[in-house]
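Ops channel
N.P.: pipeline sanity check, posting one input/output pair.
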């Protein structure tokens, strides 16, 4: 990762403390650099005031969906008798091409721990879990050490800093399933069950872990909270780029055949062109940009003409895609879109939990068709079948968002690069059907 930019506490709340050598920032160093000041301020006010500050700051979820964090906290039940509550951090970062949360957990573990303590204060949770992707071994080790340091310093456990508030925090490593990124599948896995999504309602805020009120937030979302408590909502609003309605900064990046792949903390609303050219160094010599995905494998492709869009939730959404994780993938001019989509759909089909029919059967069906088209053995009507699957597996037709996310890049690939799919339709197959008197539009 490249960090060749000037960072300070006022402009880079997530990364200003990072060491240039990539070594983790441990408790003593973190404490000297305003560490746990947000916790101290949160404990001095009511939980409702903490929720209000985060709501007023306009922090939107950084895991991909962009739901307002403060609003999510406010949905927790007001009934004081429901006093067993859980705060969960979704650290199951398995979206292909995404690596932003790993940076924070490996090098800035105390920032996440502090954010979890504040979040727990806001929703009145007595216990929290960081549900971590099992492959993130170094992140698990660093987080456990940070939790131990915070516990010894009195920021975790019983009667935190004499406030009368209790909070215990644990790291739970998953077994490596993409579906665990869906919050209810994560909850099932945490309970020791098969990682299938749950029906909603009831929502986790009312019935989550072991049937108790639960809130689930992404790593980057939680890591924004200490700065908001420390510096206020007006400051946080002032961090975004001019012209963006969203607040704060965002970890953004580019991977693919660029000169300097990496992740940087930038004002939300920074244009994709600036991220690609000024930070990622542009495309490698001899290559041109053909298309790009704004925020992970499950987002629609955009074209070079979309690079001047601000990287925020609304502008990318209006262009027909989603900002997602804001870790973009550059597709160069050598890449065949059919082969790329076959590779992506194989991943999504393999990672389906199998709970609902459209996802369980529809994704392997798309893989079968894409393999045939890739070999030049596609049949007339195959493209139309893929388009039908994109509709049938879309929002509202499946149990969770896995299948709709899987077909997003497929529908946009067909939209922008249909000729590459048509090139894989077998001429012999077309001639055979013509002889039999079957027209392509009848298939």
């Amino acid at each position: 990762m490249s960090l060749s930019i000037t960072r300070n506490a006022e402009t880079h709340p997530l990364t200003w403390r990072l060491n240039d050598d990539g070594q983790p920032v441990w408790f003593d160093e973190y404490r000297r650099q305003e560490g746990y000041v947000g916790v101290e301020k949160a404990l001095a006010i009511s939980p409702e005031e903490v929720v209000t500050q985060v709501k007023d700051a306009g922090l939107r979820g950084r895991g991909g969906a962009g739901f307002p964090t403060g609003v999510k906290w406010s949905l927790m039940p007001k009934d004081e008798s429901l006093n067993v509550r859980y705060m969960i951090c979704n650290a199951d970062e398995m979206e292909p091409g995404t690596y932003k949360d790993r940076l924070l957990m490996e090098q800035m573990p105390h920032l996440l721990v502090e954010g979890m303590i504040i979040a727990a204060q806001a929703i009145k949770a007595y216990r929290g879990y960081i549900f971590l992707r099992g492959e993130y071994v170094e992140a698990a080790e660093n987080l456990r050490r940070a939790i131990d340091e915070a516990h010894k310093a009195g920021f975790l456990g019983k009667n935190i800093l004499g406030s009368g508030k209790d909070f215990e925090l644990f790291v739970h490593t998953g077994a490596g399933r993409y579906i665990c990124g869906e919050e209810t599948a994560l909850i099932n896995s945490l309970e020791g069950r098969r990682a299938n999504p749950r029906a909603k309602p009831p929502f986790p805020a009312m019935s989550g872990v072991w049937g108790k009120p639960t809130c689930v937030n992404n790593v980057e979302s939680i890591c924004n909270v200490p700065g908001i408590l420390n510096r206020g909502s007006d400051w946080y609003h002032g961090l975004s780029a001019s012209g963006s309605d969203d607040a704060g900064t965002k970890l953004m990046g580019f991977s693919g055949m660029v000169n300097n792949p990496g992740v940087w903390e930038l004002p939300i609303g920074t244009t994709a062109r600036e991220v690609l050219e000024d930070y990622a160094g542009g495309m490698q010599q001899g290559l041109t940009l053909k298309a790009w995905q704004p925020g992970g494998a499950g987002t629609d492709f955009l074209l070079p003409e979309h690079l001047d869009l601000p990287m925020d939730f609304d502008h990318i959404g209006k262009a027909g895609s989603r900002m997602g994780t804001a870790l973009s993938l550059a597709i160069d001019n050598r890449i065949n879109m059919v082969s790329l989509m076959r590779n992506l759909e194989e991943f999504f089909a393999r990672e389906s939990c199998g709970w609902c029919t459209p996802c369980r059967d529809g994704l392997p069906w798309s893989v079968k068709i894409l393999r045939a088209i890739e070999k030049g053995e596609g049949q007339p009507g195959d493209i139309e079948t893929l388009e039908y699957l994109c509709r049938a597996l879309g929002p509202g037709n499946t149990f969770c968002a896995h299948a709709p996310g899987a077909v997003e890049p497929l529908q946009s690939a067909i939209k922008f690069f249909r000729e590459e799919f048509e090139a894989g339709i077998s001429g012999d197959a077309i001639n055979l059907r013509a002889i039999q008197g079957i027209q392509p539009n009848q298939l």
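N.P.: looks fine end to end. The first strand starts at residue 86 and ends at 91.
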